[in-house]
Specification:
Strand order of the largest sheet: 1-2-3-4-5-6-9-10
Bound molecules: beta-L-fucopyranose
Number of strands: 17
Number of domains: 2
CATH topology of the largest domain: TIM Barrel
Radius of gyration: 25 Å
Helix content: 10-25%
Structural class: alpha/beta
CATH architecture of the largest domain: Alpha-Beta Barrel
Number of helices: 10
Shape: globular
CATH class of the largest domain: Alpha Beta
Distance between the termini: 64 Å
């Protein structure tokens, strides 16, 4: 064998090695369940606060309201679902029972329910109507069943936990189809006998999982997802989907709100943030707030600080006394959807070429951040925790939003990143410095015109990114 043949053979071996598919990178830290990944992909759900408070104008009913107060004149869950669908929501979560204890379904454990109301002569069932309307629109159906109950005479005694479990069973036993999320509010006030309840959380969780094994359970400490720590629609700019929950409980024993807002960088459970916020000042509909519905600009700001910060947005749009979404709210939702459609209609990185300073193998090439679907991702080599991806835009583009996605089935790894744009003179100019990415991060920048963008990430394990986008938003007036 002469030298030339040896060199050629070595080169052939090297090329063959480079062309081989590399095994998937090892996951890092706690990872989401498949259900949590699917939940996160929903991005936006609608919250629906409805019940006696809709008719009394209260936020927290007393529990003493007469059942005949609940009498929507024209309940139309089909309208809620069709507006939700048109506005881009993927599911609806309804207050089946709020703190006043009134049940929007004929709960056999209580007399304080729709069955004792004049609505449909006591034969109505809002959960049935909504679950069917959701199914018809291809939306998922979820429930808020408040553990705090200001009506139930057992509340404040050990028997109440059993009443509450049977209440959960009567919603989760399959009669309303699959329940995708169970909302556990942490509120724990006094009941009719002036006592507070000691909640049996493990029993409540066990009960939901027994019937709805795929349900994501919301509370201040999960286990499926966590409260974001405020009701303003703002997730932490740094937002880890990880949380330490040992020693904490929902409600008064919850982690501090800033921890809920940002998560714990090395938290030992995967409990992503859900951002719940109302389109109106209150959670329940009030005539006096018809002119206080959030503007499209407000909603866009909330979108950026929730979906754009690795959180799911749960936007409350409360039905009015007719049992329909008020025209102001439904029109606003559709305008919001149009604005999002306009902002995100053109990904200016479409057709671009991505290269990376480190690549694990050809099946993990940088181009995967631009194409190939959710499960195609770029990964750096083992041991390489700082790496850059350069995106050649194939001509100058002008944008002010940069979208990045981490492939969360392998954990949340990125601790910080910078974004640079190439200037006219060929030098790199920094346009953003941020911390976490997670499922989705949308960075607001000043207006930038360039033909090359470079993203440099620092991570706790070799970075894995599966999405990148550049967009031009000419609608939202908030500052980066
Ligand atoms: C809170 C409740 O007390 C409010 O009434 C509302 O339901 C909100 C979503 O959760 O904790």
């Amino acid at each position: 064998m002469n030298v030339r043949t040896i060199i050629l053979s070595l080169a052939a071996v090297a090329v063959a090695a480079a062309c081989q598919n590399a095994p998937s990178p090892e996951p890092y830290g706690p990872i989401p369940s498949p259900q949590q990944v699917e939940w996160q992909k929903m991005e936006m759900n609608m919250f629906s606060h409805f019940g006696p408070n809709t008719f009394t104008g209260r936020e927290w009913g007393l529990g003493t309201e007469a059942e005949d107060i609940f009498n929507p004149t024209d309940l139309d869950c089909g309208q809620w679902a069709s507006v939700a669908k048109a506005a881009g929501f993927k599911g609806i979560i309804i207050t089946g029972k709020h703190h006043d204890g009134f049940c929007l379904w004929p709960n056999p454990m209580s007399t304080h329910t729709v069955a004792s109301s004049p609505w449909k002569d006591g034969k109505g069932d809002v959960l049935k109507e909504l679950s069917e309307a959701c199914a018809a629109e291809g939306l998922k159906f979820g429930v808020y069943i408040s553990p705090w109950d200001r009506n139930d005479p057992h509340y404040g005694t050990p028997e109440y936990n059993d009443v509450y479990v049977k209440t959960l069973e009567s919603v989760h036993d399959g009669r309303y189809g699959e329940v995708f999320e169970q909302w556990f509010d942490g509120a724990n006030g006094e009941g009719p006998n002036g006592k507070k309840q000691v909640y049996d959380w493990p029993l409540f969780h066990e009960t939901v999982l027994k019937y709805s094994p795929n349900a994501i359970m919301f509370s201040d400490v999960g286990p499926g997802c966590r409260w974001v720590g405020n009701e303003r629609g703002v997730a932490g700019r740094t937002n880890w989907s990880l949380l330490d929950i040992e020693g904490f409980t929902p409600g008064a024993g919850a982690p501090p709100t800033d921890t809920l807002n940002c998560g714990n960088v090395h938290g030992n459970s995967w409990i992503p943030a859900e951002t719940d916020v109302s389109i109106r000042p209150g959670w329940f509909w009030k005539e006096s707030e018809n002119d206080k519905v959030k503007s499209v600009n407000d909603l866009l700001g909330i979108y950026y600080t929730s979906v754009g910060r690795n959180s799911l947005l749960l936007l409350n749009v409360p039905p009015d006394t007719t049992g329909r979404l008020h025209p102001v709210d439904s029109a606003r939702l559709l305008e919001f959807k149009d604005a999002l459609g306009e902002i995100f209609k053109d990904n200016l990185a479409d057709g671009a070429k991505a290269t990376a300073s480190s690549t694990r193998g050809r099946n993990f090439k940088a181009q995967n951040i631009l194409e190939g679907g959710y499960d195609a991702f770029w990964a750096a080599k083992d041991g390489v925790c700082e790496s850059s991806v350069t995106i050649d835009l194939n001509g100058k583009k002008t944008f002010n939003r940069v979208m990045l996605q981490e492939y969360i089935p392998l954990g949340q790894r990125v601790k910080s990143f910078s974004i640079e744009a190439m200037a006219e003179d060929g030098s790199w100019k920094n346009i953003a410095e941020e911390t976490t990415i997670g499922y989705k991060r949308i960075v607001l920048t000043e207006k930038v015109t360039t033909d090359k963008v470079r993203v440099t990430v620092k991570a706790y394990a070799p970075p894995v990114l599966n999405g990148f986008g550049l967009f031009m938003d000419t609608i939202y007036t908030g500052r980066p």
